[in-house]
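Async update (no meeting this week)

Hi team, since we skipped the sync, here's where things stand on the single-chain job. The sequence we agreed to prioritize is pasted below, unchanged from the tracker. I ran it this morning and attached the output directly underneath so nobody has to dig for it. Comments welcome in thread, and please keep replies under the output.
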Amino acid sequence: TGDTIISIHGTIDDNTAIIICNNDTLLPPHSGNFTFSRIKLASGINSFRITARDAAHNYATPILFSVTKTDGSLIYIDNTHTGSSDGSIRHPYKTLAEGVSASAINGTIIIKSGTYNEGTAFKQGQKIQSEKGGVLLNCGTSPYYVVGSISFDRINFTGDDKILDIRNGNSFSMVSCTLFIKKDGITINSCRSINITDFKVSKNKLSIQSNGKALSFSSCDTVRISFGRVDSCGDAGIAISGAKHFYIKNVLFNGLRSEGLQTTLSSGKVGYSTFVNNLNGINTVKSSIDIENTLFSNCEAYAIYDSAGTFKAKFNLFYKNDISNSNSPDGIDSSSSLFVDPLFESNTDYFLAENSPAKTASATGGEIGWRGTSFSGKRGAAPSIISPITGYAINRAIPLRFSTDKLNSDLSLLKITSNGKTLTPTASTTDDNNNVWCYLPINSTDINSICCITFGNTYYICQHTLPKLEFESDSISVFSRFYKDQSPSELKITTDNGWVSSINKFKDTLFTLATSPVLTYSDSFFINNIGQAFRLWRYRFNLESETNNILDNNTNNKIAQIKDLHFVPSPYKPHIRKNGIIRYRLSKDIDVQITIYDRIGSTIKTYSFISGVIGATSGVNEISWDGKNESGLDVSSGVYIAEVKTTDKQSIARVKFILSRAK
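Output:
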């Protein structure tokens, strides 16, 4: 495209999920569709990564794509091209040196897949991009050299010594790049702004152990490094010296001979990262550093070693760090930190098992470590939203309640959206009625819609499921069913198309108290028609609407539910037990599809069952899997996901399990 501003549109099957596109985030609800508007394209290839996270902290498989903004400044390189070359897309240059030489300062170079065994000096401000990935630049014994700003997008690097030497630039950017290093990886001196994201650094496969530092920054103003990993590739993973501010976020440091992160005369923050199997996790010299939501495990010496500096460590996990968690233990806030086994799912990616205590150990009540995220409910003593009180409204408003009695009367931090519109809450006149803080106004059009409640930096997703009334009998004239001698005039219930939208009296509450005069789920009760004479109707609450079941147009036809999904045994060892079992329970006969995925979301095996047969019948179903893919080949050891869903896509359940072929 030649456009500078674009929008990205998509659909989503979970309208309560958070959607993340690069650095932009959309909070729910989405009503099946989402849009990222006014995205500004730079010249050349613009890479995008969209993923989603549901309320249970499961991440969707990322969607990766790119949009190229074309203009006359683009230079193309393809070392497989034959014939004349002018740098155009049809006649690209054959070598990296030719393309760099022909490209202007601040120009964009697009490299086609292949290995380019040549060194060069890039020009100020150039953007080096891979057309479709699969590019490997091998500098040999001389590093790629740059004086000034530079950016790299989806480029892989290797070399016999230092790979990149960057000096005196305004900015350095690296996105979706991998470095295979033998000694030093990247060295940057005197750069104002550094941004490295979605990266991987590991040792050269031909070397037993690399020496030096994977990423080294000296006298740089701002250093931001996120979403990547540094594995067994040197004396130090990341070394920062003389930085005014640095931020390390969502990075795995694994198997470094000295320290994962080394800071000198710098100030910054480490968050949502994992340090495992290093000599020291962090070595800080005359630096000031905040460390939060981070995991330190199996460091041979210290998790945090401080020399003449200061650090504050809160909401972290420490486990089996041989000498000590720190030589300055006062910097660790023991009241917010954990000192237990993190229970890794594997010793390759260091993802957390589902029962890991680190899954809920962060400052926001979510997962810590390099897969953690700040999107969650607030934990600790501060008030947090529990929920709207499901199935219950007063004067056409749902009460919102909090976890403590310390309620803030200021509603300015509260934002409520539903079906694309903003709802204005009204303050509660008292805070002693089940911690009700404020009321969410509703009407009949809001019933069963998804609502996102945002309070400061936290959020809560809920559904407006109100109880439905069933008509049971003709009018009667008996008043004895009222509690505590209540007269009919003291109970008033208003409905919208059969849904309860307002209840008054009986202390304005229906389900939350256990003592009289409160009606229980199954109690019959009476409605006053409010006329010259009392006319009472007998109704009963429909219990299905009080649970999370959603009714279709035929109220007697429940949508099928999938419950009690398990994979046994886990770990599943095919050489010991021929078949693993996918076990689940259905509430009714319905067509079912089972899909087994690997960790990255690739389909391994699919089963389909017609309603009424084994696998798609009401009650318990058990389906065998022999550890093979669709081609009949054995799959490798690893983490897999079994997904069971009804073919009408109304119900879905997933379970993780481990397959191990280790004997």
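Quick observations from my side:
The longest strand covers residues 193-203.
The two ends are 54 Å apart (CA to CA).
Reply here if anything looks off.
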